[in-house]
Amino acid sequence: MQQSQKLQKTDYQMLAPDNHGANAVIEEIGESPQEEYHASEDSSGKDSIGKIDKACALIRDFALQCPEQPGCYRMFDGRENLLYVGKAKNLKKRVISYSNRERQSPRILRMISETTSLSFTITPTEMEALLLESNLIKQQQPRYNILLKDDKSMPRLLIRRDHDFPRMVKHRGIKDIKGDYFGPFPSTMAVNRAMIDLQKIFKLRDCSDNIFKNHQHRPCMRYQIKRCSAPCAGLIGKQDYQQSVDDLKDFLSGNHESVRVKIQDEMQQASDNMEYEKAGVKRDQLKYLASLTRFQRINLRDIKDIDVVALVMQNGQSCITVFFYRGGCLLGHRNYFPKHSHDSEAKEIISSFLAQLYAQYVPPKHILINEMPDDIDFLCDLLSARRDGKLELAMPHRGERKSLMEHAVQNAMQALQMRVVSKTSWHNNLNLLQAKLNLPKLPERIEIYDNSHIQGSHAASAMVVAGTEGLMKQAYRKFHIKQIRDDIGGDDYAMMHEVMYRRFTRYQKQEKQWAIHPDILLIDGGKGQVQIVKSVLDALKINNVYVLGIAKGKDRNAGQETFCLPDGRIFTLPDNDPLLFFLQNLRDEAHRYALGAHQQKRSKQTLQNPLDEIEGIGATRKKQLLQYFGSAKEVKNAALEDLQNVPGLGDKIAHKIYAYFHH
Questions:
Q1: Start-to-end Cα distance in the chain
Q2: Residue 377, number of CB atoms within 10 A of its CB
Q3: How far apart are CA 37 and CA 120, in angstroms?
Q4: Residue 264: other Cβ atoms inside 10 A
Q5: pLDDT tens figures, 394-413
Q6: Who's near 385: CB < 8 A, 6+ residues apart?
């Protein structure tokens, strides 16, 4: 079964007998032996039945309708939010086990108490049930499943094959470009560092094709710092450049020794021919190559591609560290902190983690783990299908592999301890904030806002979000300001008014990702900005939101900030107060993010071709003009007669272009 294989469903709808106050609805979609069944709570259930007992009765009735076949089941709350996705070899037996409240953990009891409807999907095999479960968890993020909070795909190194002189670039996402992919790397920083080191050895270009065309007479700075062989300026032939590409592929595939021997032979040959400058270049390549291979802690002799996955748990929290070895080289490691309840078992966590992690990219042939999941056989089948070949999932007990695992476990433990300390400090700061503002409960969501612009131009605003566990970067949002109204007060006030109005009208509409009620709004600004925010909240009738402004101190000195409240009160905090540092850090994070949005907007407009703004000038006519005049600047300076002489342009378009630039 291929990873891209879509599980089909069928499409029936029927009402089943009403038992224990539960209605059962069968739904099918498509043409396959799979079925989907729904049961929903009947509002006429007896009030005397407890919430959990009522849910157990619903589950028991639902289980009677389930077949004894493999598949996935889903639990929903009263708002039809997905609570949990599970797989089963036998749906009837697995689902009915939830109806016995005496055997459930506190986490499962909480989930059962919130359950008001269920559904299931039959699959031909248990392996397909595992695949469906993984996809549903990744797409819908159920609250009670073990979740990967950082699900961003990891970058790869790509050698593109769409040019006579292939270039080396970093790539993230699906493999939609023709070329050779290597990786994944644990972070963008890791792939950038690898590209710099590899350029010093193999001197492949990383510039775009447009930059390549514009340096046909003189190479760029990359050549001067000895990180490119300058094929753009003709300083290396196509055949020699392709040989460097092949050498790089060999190196990334693990053939380090053959590449080293080849460079060593070329150095010796250049020395024998008294080409000492060329021999010096080859010597430097050998030096960089040695530094790359010497960096590895453990030299993998018998395995080229392997992932080492180590799970450690402490006080209900867990850290999973993954070391990525490709071609016998360590590309780096990445720490994950999956979201789960305090009573989750290690076997359950590692199984869910592997299924979700390798949904992002093709797994290697060998994966080492330190916790063996119960569904090991089906997990191996699933991952083997994703890589279209056999896969080994094993716990090492001796030798080189055990050393790799011990190293990974040590790193995971250290990362978890640092995170526990960080979370404790963060929680203490939230307690200080709650006490200072006299809040009824600990703030669970703090939204921080800041604006960035230059005298109203390229205006952008940012929303940064902090929760009980730290900054929630997946919830960050940018606002591109559409209109600055002088009647509201000019730049900052008008921008803040627009941002607040857009944010909370989306909240009222219960739009996805905006339907969350914040506890605190931290505004980078003084009394004026706070009053603007309060006016928007009052107009939209948004209640129970605490607004706090943080204004820069005298001469904009850090440590002298004043804090403004909607009722006009102002207070300050001592210079060494940890709460002051906490609020400063939140403000600075919002400023950083807003400044990035502003700079991105400004750079985009700076690089924008003025011809794009002229109505009637599409890609074809723009290409005609640039080929005829050489640049947009020359088009702007051209006389009307010159524009009329452009083949195929026409007098009407020539007049329009001339009028755009001169009137």
A1: 64
A2: 12
A3: 5
A4: 15
A5: 899 888 888 889 989 999 99
A6: 1, 2, 3, 127, 131
Q: What is the pLDDT of residues 428-481, one digit of tens each?
A: 999 999 999 999 999 999 999 998 876 666 788 899 999 988 888 888 998 888
Q: What is the pLDDT of residues 97-126, one digit of tens each?
A: 888 877 777 778 888 888 888 888 888 877
CA 350, CA 372: separation in Å to the nearest integer? 8
Determine the residue type at 382: L
Kindly report the number of other CB atoms within 10 A of residue 223's CB atom.
20
Q: How far apart are CA 198 and CA 396, in angstroms?
A: 32
The alpha carbon dihedral of 248, 254, 256, 261 has a sign of negative
Amino acid making up residue 351: S
- Of 25, 32, 28, 26, give the one whose Cα is nearest residue 11: 28
HSE-up of residue 564 (Cα within 13 Å, Cβ side):
19
pLDDT, position 25? 32
Indicate the SS3 state at residue 16.
Answer: strand
Between helix 399-437 and helix 578-607 the angle, nearest 10°, is: 110
472's CB contacts (< 8 A; 6+ apart) are: 465, 466
Say which residue the tokens 């029927």 belong to.
Answer: 14
From 34-38, 163-167, 235-239, 307-311, the region with the lowest mean pLDDT: 34-38
Global pTM value: 0.65
Tokens of 326: 């490709």
